[in-house]
Structures are given as C-alpha cells and as structure tokens.
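Q: I have 334 residues here and want to know how they pack in 3D. Can you give me a structure?
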Amino acid sequence: MAVGFPAHDRLLLSFHSSFPVLNAFYSDHFVLPLPTGHRFPMQKYRLIREGAQKAIPDLELCEAPAATDGMLALAHHPDYIRRVSTGALSAAEQKAIGFPWTQQMVERSRRSVGATIAACRAAMDQGAAVNLAGGTHHAFADHGEGFCVFNDVAAAARLMQAERRAARVAIVDLDVHQGNGTASILACDDSVFTLSLHGEHNYPFAKEPGDLDVALPDGIGDNDYIAALERALADLFSRFAPQLIIYLAGADPHEGDRLGRMKLTLGGLAMRDRLVMEQAYQRKIPVAVTMAGGYGRNIQDTVAVHVQTIAIAARISRQRNPERRCGMNSVGPK
C-alpha cells in the first residue's frame, strides 16, 4: 500500500490483485541535466513511476518509444524539428522553453511524444492507457515555451487520425495553465476539439482561443471546480462526438502547488479524474491520460495526485475489460 495517502485514497489504491492490465509508458530514465536550483521538478517522473508500481503492482510498464521526425511533423514545422534536433535553437528560444539545449533534452522530448502516441494506441485497444509524463501543451508549431519542446497531444491526435484509429479526437486539458500551443496548432481543425479549464490570471497570460475555454478564478475550490467541469463536459459532448479522448490530468490545481493558485484537495482531484474517465467510459470512448504539470511545494503531494489519477484510470480500465489480468509481469528501468 502506498504511504502518505489520506484514508479515502488508500482505499482507492488498495485493490492490488484486482487491477487489470493498464499500459503505462515511462521515460523518466532519460534525464535532463538541469542546473542546480532549476524549478522544473525532473525527479517527479521517477517518483510517479515508483509510486504507481507500489500502488498498482500489476501495472504494465513499457519504455516509451521515440517519436520520429514524421510523427513530429504532424504538429511541427520541419525546420523547427531540425533546429531542435541539431542544437540550432537560439538562446532566446532556449530561454522561452526553459531548458538549455542538450542531446538529452532532444531524446526525452521525443520519448515524451512517443509515450502519448503509444498510450493512444493502447487506449484504442484496451479502453485506457497512461503516459507517465507528457501533456506538453505549451509547444507551438514553430517554437517551444513553458518547459514544452514538442506538443505530444497535438501530434498524437493527428497520428491517430492518420492511422485511421479515430477520426474525431477530444483533448480535455485540466492542467491549471491553458494549453496555448495545442489551441494554436489545432485552431483550424474541426476534427479535434480542445477543451481547457484553466486559471484566468495564470500563465500563459496571452491565451490562444480553443474550442471551449473555461477561465477560472484564483482560489477556486473543489465544489465550484467540479460544477464548472460538469458544465464543460456536457457542452463538449453536446457539440462533438469524440472517438478518443486525450486527457491532460495536471496536478497543479492542487492546493499545495507553487504555481497553481487554485485550492483543490486530493479528494477533489479524484472527483475530477473520475468525472472525466467515467463520462468517457459511459460513452465507450477510449482515454489516453498524460500527467501534465505539477509543481507542489512538497513534491510528494504532486506525486500523490498523479498516482491517484493512474489508479483511477486502472479502475476504469477494469470496468471496461473485467476479464483482463496482467500476470504480475511489470517491468521498469533497473
């Protein structure tokens, strides 16, 4: 049993032997060499994988594949892909991204996109799957921002369409920061619906219009947030019939987040995740989940939110595939 979860969440995470196969794609062993004191919580991805393994022993862990140039070109200009890959980004471009250029940055960014693509493919087969990173929604077609190099959700949505797995894709972005890059890349694409609930006064301060943007005030709590989400999902499903949902389950609306400015509790975030995934389950829509942002003052709070999301995805997967079992053959980096 996971340590450090409140009682109601320990109950959620306690069905070890009854969880089905849920594919979870990891890339945390591709580490960016960041300077001391850098505010990006690189270690959270290893902690998420380790926490999920403990909480869900029959989670099926798979190393994330690297996205190819062709996959990235579904969302990005070829010249931008080339400049990222060869280290030709300017100092200003690197500053906007928030990472110094290294070959490790390129590899991890490709793996993060590849993990969301793999999660989408697995979700189409199994009903749900998870990228243990991803949600890099501030990356535009021709530049990166806000710790985002390549836009995994835009590339994955378009690849699922190109592979004829899903003609209509909905991106449900519940990171506290608006997915400006995603909205920009998909602005003229009626086959992908972008829904975002985000902080009205939070980064990015210049928002890009998506299909449905819900700007929320600082300090919003569980009840008001869930009510807003219920209305937004009802609006989404009244206007659009997705065949796949890519869900950005950011941990940054949590009350302990340094950058979030919202006041959702761990229990409120569980209600959020269940609402999205159960609505998808009721409509028989596969869901691929990405972790997106999370910058807790206590990193264990952020990890707890993410692991809870993965546990809820596993339970929804079991409802969809009650006969599936993993066989306890999970693997991970040595």
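Q: Anything worth noting?
A: The chain has a mean pLDDT of 90. The beta strands are 23-26, 60-63, 128-131, 169-173, 192-199, 212-216, 244-248, 287-290.
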